[in-house]
Amino acid sequence: MAKVLQYVVHAAVLSLLVVGLATSIAAQGKGRGGGVGGGRGSGSGPPSGAGVDRGLGNASDRSDGRSDDGLANASTHSNGRSNAGLDRARRAQDNLRRADNDLNDHPGVPQTLHVSANSLRSGYQAALVKNPDLTFGNYVAATRLAQNLGSRFPNITRDNILADLASGQSLGRALQDLGLSSQESKDARKRVDEEIKQAKKMKS
């Protein structure tokens, strides 16, 4: 009877040891699993929204709005250049339209310059690319002045006169910059004005 009781006690103790060991192992396994899941998943990983999108989204906050200002300024600056280009093109187109009217009304002008109307128009159109404010009258005058003076003053070419006009100089100042005295410039312009006036009276 004593041996049977001893056997029961030993079996009970052994069962308790097995149960305790199993519980300990299970607890350790669960802890490791939770650690991996938490560390690599939601626990130790980047916060929600982290990464490129989050960086772009917070760029304005971190730069005190400078990033937003930069984007806005870039758009504004580009728009300014675009508007300036459109304005130049509009002025050039208006001047070219007036030149067409002038050529239609005064066909004698190309004849006086010894060029065709189409050639005179295309030359003026090309000049407007560099100087959209150039009037057709000044283009015609520059052409005639170069014809009258170029043989004696090699610097006086139509292109050189137009370059001075594009920089803001007057026709008289341009001629002086290219080698004429004040009186010579005045006399040359007076002669050309008279020639063009006579040309406008001519009929086709």
What key phrases describe this protein's structure?
204 residues; mainly alpha; globular; disordered N terminus
What is this structure's SSE topology?
Blueprint (H helix, E strand, L loop, with lengths): L1 H41 L9 H6 L1 H4 L3 H40 L2 H6 L3 H14 L5 H14 L8 H9 L4 H7 L4 H20 L3
Helix pairs in contact: 4-6, 7-8, 7-10, 8-9, 9-10
Order of helices and strands: HHHHHHHHHH
Cα shape: globular
Summing up helix and strand content along with how strands pair, one would put the structural category as: mainly alpha
Radius of gyration: 46 Å
How many helices does DSSP assign?
Answer: 10
Round the mean pLDDT to the nearest integer and report it.
76
Uncertain residue ranges: 1-5, 21-57
Give the % helix: over 70%
Largest sheet: none
> What share of the residues does DSSP label as strand, in percent?
under 5%
Q: What's the N-to-C terminus distance? A: 149 Å
| Number of strand segments | 0
Overall description:
79% of the residues lie in helices and 0% in strands. It has 10 helices and no strands. 16% of the residues are buried. Residues 1-5 and 21-57 have low confidence and may be disordered.
Summarize the structure.
This protein is an all-alpha fold. The protein has helices at 2-42, 52-57, 59-62, 66-105, 108-113, 117-130, 136-149, 158-166, 171-177, 182-201.
